[in-house]
Design a protein that fits this description.
about 1000 residues, alpha+beta, Jelly Rolls, 6 domains, 9-stranded antiparallel beta sheet, 18 helices, metal-binding, hydrolase
């Protein structure tokens, strides 16, 4: 095959490699280098600077995985350097970088000997200018320290194989890197500028249509510049080359050219292929780069999300934080997003998503004086249909993401649109058509943005986030140079350095009647994130409900007894939970180190909230000899009213299992359950409706094992091909009736075993299943199937503050792509007037279809709806030991249930009664009570401002309009409606207040926050 590369392209590539790049520095001089390897975890500068540094030779190896090595470089600026016009003095550092992605390998933070941070060095950003921050005059002393992090490249060459690098304990001790360069360089600015001219024009050449005048003139200019620049005198002739290219660079863009708003950006994953402790340093490195760039480049604006990352900077790098604060005041460093972290939005509960904004916007307001207007989630794995209302209730007007472009089946039809949530709230939304949040502002990317923009007929603006991301690093001076050259360039979209607010303001004015997309933004990819790392998901679910209990009982104790409200402890717990909802932690897609930290974090939350709950309840109940039951849920449970405490025990005893042939039967007044000798539920008879729910020949509560080998992103993906290999776990080692009425089933399979319990509630049409699984499979998926004789066209799945209806069929490609979906505490399937709810205490992944599933042989698949829960996975990358070990899961099936029963079951399953011994016998009345079951009290707490006011968050849970009364159980002086940040707003749900009673009217799924002054 002949090489069809354009000769000019080939000539330019050689010209750049052999002439320009070697001439970027007119002179280089070595620095004297010493080093100190930190014996353990990273240490602050103040400790490092006084360490015992020893001589180190450039070219030597250093840095085992996850270690930190401090280099100190000293020397003198050579005589005459400051007299050379058109040059700049820089420290040049190569820590042993490869030419793969920045942010995934060695990185360094450079300090002066006096403790001032200069900037970071990374693979694509190796220079540290000295002109504005350190003396750069001839004869001046140079003394800098480089904190080098030898982070392993876990994802090198995009390979997804099991790795030992995910934990410091297993990563080994051999050095990963060699220090290649630590020297002073005299940069030739004209050569550098010519290189930037070529970057822009050579890229443009590839995007211009063939056989056009513009392409011909650009090609000719690029060809001729190679002749103009003398290889024997690149420095002396570089400007001549620039002058030659000026005539093609100066031709302005067409009036109809697409307008790109270039926003400096660095998507920094708060943990992923590195632990949280390394993210703290990545933030410092990136923000230092940005500060340096802001101080050198006019008009450059940088946007960064995640209040947690600013809080880390404030705690660990206070001087750098003050620099950032100054640039924030000047409008050059722009906090965006308003959330504590760039959270996953599928898995966190409603109140937790609300607290993302309470914490995030609260920090931005109090520490930086900023009220962010946009929500910024470029990389989360799909977006809940509840999010528009939550965003709006937090005071946000705009939303940005680009992740939906990763869809594996369907292309989103809009770039700019209004996204409508489950309650009808609409938020102006933009998907940057550049299709990356790590743009370099190359001609290829700019052309792609223009080509992909879908609203061309009515609009002409899009946003392009530019800067090295994921592992951080941020924008570079080379990217800013590209933006300046394409501000108005014929054949290219026009690029404008801008802030997100500028873009959204202009885009919304240009497209006031944007098209509407209704419902969730389901990512047709990364479906395994609903299930991977089950312990972390259980920790999240449990922590959310523990925090509900802690706030409720602490607020009740403060109001009733005057006990101190534990503001600091509660905020610390919420910060931990919200951090761990980051979109690579909670979804289960990080290295093992991250999950060791996460489990420790949840243990701290459990300890602190447990202490708060116990102290509050004992303050309320006093000492005594009684046992009390505390119900933190919004519905009465076993005779205990909602949000109250009562000493009366449950009057119901357990349902005892009775032998039935070679199996057992469980029966109460409402339902009869038959379990065969295999421990499978072969019959669920609704005695009230006289209706059998398990189709003939099928079994409910059936565990199914699938091969689970995704094509690429192991922990992230469940590919549809898993459905082709199914093993029904029908064999039981034992089936016995145990004390307390339950059946105990023991199973073994592969290298794993489990114990399952089956019990029937004494007073309800509900079957409770418990699972203790000792899981040692690899690349397997464990599902729990309930084939039900119910013909459901759609399934209702609980999401934040409501539920979502999804088709159970696959009529369209959009329906077919949703073969794995997310639900929170319950799902519901039903026909008109009859249904079944399946609730859980820690599971999120589901598939609900009318296709056959279960014991084979059914002839009524069309009338059967099968609900399946994804219990466990076993991916190998990035954590080869993901989910290995013991897991405890609980599932319940409510027979003859509608949406009201499903909602109540979800709360009951996740908020069991809390038993307190050794207390007084007097009941504790609730602080608030609601008389309409569809109006759910989601949170009761004290106000964030420390005023002592009580804040109550409610929502409509059934999907219908609801009118009800909130009765306050303490002296109240005023009741007002607020947003999530507890700022008074015009009433949307509050209709009237008379004494302790507030009249409410909520539309379907509406959230309402009330502030009760006392």
């Amino acid at each position: 095959m002949p090489d069809l590369t354009d000769p000019v392209e080939e000539r330019l590539a050689r010209f750049r490699a052999e002439r320009l790049l070697p001439a970027l520095y007119r002179e280089r001089v070595p620095l004297d280098v010493t080093a100190w390897e930190v014996p353990g975890e990273p240490v602050p500068f103040a400790e490092a600077v006084d360490a015992d540094f020893t001589p180190f030779e450039v070219g030597s190896a250093y840095g085992p995985p996850w270690a930190t090595t401090w280099f100190r470089a000293t020397g003198t600026v050579p005589e005459g350097w400051d007299d050379v016009e058109g040059t700049a003095v820089e420290v040049v550092v190569d820590l042993g970088f490869s030419d793969t992605e920045p942010g995934f390998q060695a990185e360094g933070l450079v300090w002066t000997a006096g403790g001032r941070i200069l900037k970071a060095v990374e693979p694509m950003n190796q220079a540290v200018p000295l002109d504005t921050s350190s003396p750069a005059r001839s004869g001046a002393a140079v003394d800098v320290l480089v904190e080098a992090a030898s982070n392993p490249h876990v994802l090198e060459h995009m390979t997804f194989v099991p790795t030992h690098l995910g934990s410091r304990a297993t990563a080994g001790k051999d050095p990963l890197y060699r220090l290649r360069r630590l020297e002073l360089g005299l940069r030739d600015v004209a050569v550098w500028e010519l290189d930037r001219d070529l970057f822009t024009l050579a890229g443009l050449l590839l995007e211009l249509p063939p056989e056009t005048q513009r392409r011909a003139e650009v090609r000719e200019a690029l060809d001729r510049v190679v002749d103009v620049v003398d290889p024997q005198d690149v420095s002396g002739t570089a400007q001549a080359g620039r002058d030659l290219l000026r005539r093609v660079l100066d031709k302005p863009a067409n009036a109809s050219a697409h307008q790109l708003y270039a926003v400096g950006h660095a998507h920094i994953d708060s943990a992923w292929l590195w632990p949280v402790r390394e993210t703290v340093r990545k933030v410092a490195r990136t923000f230092a780069n940005v500060c340096d760039l802001i101080e050198r480049e006019e008009q450059f604006v940088f946007a960064a999300s995640s209040a947690q990352q600013y809080a880390w900077l404030q705690e660990f790098y206070p001087d750098l934080f003050e620099r950032v604060r100054g640039h924030v005041r000047a409008g050059r460093f722009v906090p965006v997003g308003g959330m504590w972290v760039e959270s996953d939005t599928n898995l966190p509960g409603g109140e937790a998503l609300a607290r993302q904004f309470v914490l995030g916007k609260g920090f931005f307001s109090s520490e930086l004086g900023v009220d962010t207007q946009e929500v910024w989630l470029p990389d989360s794995f799909g977006y809940s249909g509840a999010l528009p209302q939550i965003m709006a209730a937090a005071g946000a007007k705009w939303f940005l993401t680009q992740k939906i472009s990763w869809n594996d089946s369907n292309v989103m039809p809009h770039s700019t649109f209004r996204w409508e949530g489950i309650d009808g709230t609409q938020v102006f939304t933009h998907f940057p058509p550049v299709d990356t949040y790590n743009s370099e502002l190359s001609a290829e990317e700019l052309a792609r943005a223009e080509r992909n923009f879908t609203e061309k007929a009515v609009a002409n603006r899009s946003l392009v986030p530019f800067g090295h991301g994921d592992g951080g690093g941020g924008p570079t001076r080379e990217m800013v140079a590209a933006a300046r050259r394409t501000a108005s360039l014929e054949g290219s979209p026009s690029v404008r350095l801008a802030s997100p607010v500028e873009f959204f303001t202009d885009a919304q004015a240009e497209l006031p009647d944007a098209p509407v997309w209704s419902g969730e933004l389901y990512l047709e990819f990364h479906r395994g994130t609903y299930t991977s790392q089950a312990r972390t998901k259980r920790g999240n679910r449990r922590s959310e409900h523990l925090l509900r209990e802690a706030e409720l009982w602490a607020a009740t104790a403060t109001v009733r007894t005057g006990a101190a409200y534990p503001y600091a402890a509660l905020q610390a717990a919420w910060r931990t939970v919200c951090l761990q909802q980051f979109h690579d932690i909670l979804p289960g897609t990080s290295i093992s180190w991250v999950y060791a930290d996460a489990e420790a974090g949840y243990a701290r939350v459990a300890e602190s909230t447990g202490r708060i709950i116990d102290e509050a309840l004992r303050a309320l109940l006093g000492s005594g000899t009684s046992t009390a039951s505390a119900n933190a849920g919004p519905y009465a449970v076993d005779g205990v009213p909602a949000l109250a405490v009562t000493p009366e025990p449950s009057p119901f005893g357990p349902v005892e299992a009775q032998p039935d042939g070679d199996g057992f039967v469980l029966e109460n007044d409402l339902v009869r359950v038959r379990v065969d000798a295999r421990g499978l539920i072969v019959s669920i008879l609704d005695l009230v409706a006289a209706r059998e729910l398990v189709p003939e020949g099928r079994a409910a509560g059936l565990l199914q094992l699938h091969r689970d080998v995704p094509n690429r992103w192991d922990a992230w993906d469940i590919d549809r091909t898993y459905q082709r290999t199914t093993t029904d776990l029908v064999d039981a080692v034992s089936l016995t009736a145990v004390e307390g009425g339950a059946l105990r089933v023991e199973r073994r399979f592969g290298d794993s075993s489990l114990v399952q319990t089956i019990a029937l509630a004494p007073d309800a049409a509900r079957i409770d299943l418990g699972f203790t699984v000792d899981w040692h499979e690899r690349q397997k998926l464990l599902k729990l199937a309930f084939p039900l004789d119910v013909h459901a066209d759609a399934a209702a799945s609980e999401i934040q503050f409501g539920h979502l209806n999804r088709p159970t069929h696959a009529n369209t490609s959009w329906d077919s792509a949703r073969f794995e979906t997310v639900a929170h505490r319950w799902v519901h399937v039903g026909e008109a007037g009859y249904g079944v709810a399946v609730s859980n205490d820690s599971t999120y992944g589901h598939d609900i279809t009318r296709a056959s599933a279960g014991v084979r042989g059914s002839t009524t698949a069309g009338a059967t709806t099968t609900v399946r829960l994804s219990l466990l996975r076993a991916p190998l990358f990035p954590d080869p030991d993901a989910d290995q070990g013991e897991h405890v899961l609980n599932v319940s099936v409510a027979v003859g249930a509608g949406i009201p029963e499903a909602v109540a079951e979800g709360y009951r399953r996740n908020l069991p009664l809390r038993v307190v011994d050794g207390v007084g016998a007097e009941p504790v009345e609730p602080l608030v009570a609601v008389d309409h079951p569809a109006i759910v009290v989601e949170a009761v707490k004290l106000a964030e401002d420390g005023s002592g006011d009580v804040v109550v968050r409610l929502y409509e849970a059934y999907g219908s309009r609801a009118r009800g009364r909130l009765t306050v159980g303490f002296d109240v002086t005023d009741v007002v409606e607020t947003d999530l940040l507890e700022r008074t707003v015009d009433p949307a749900a509050l209709r009237a207040v008379e004494g302790p009673v507030a009249e409410l009217e909520l539309r379907p799924f509406q959230i309402a926050t009330l502030r009760l002054s006392r």
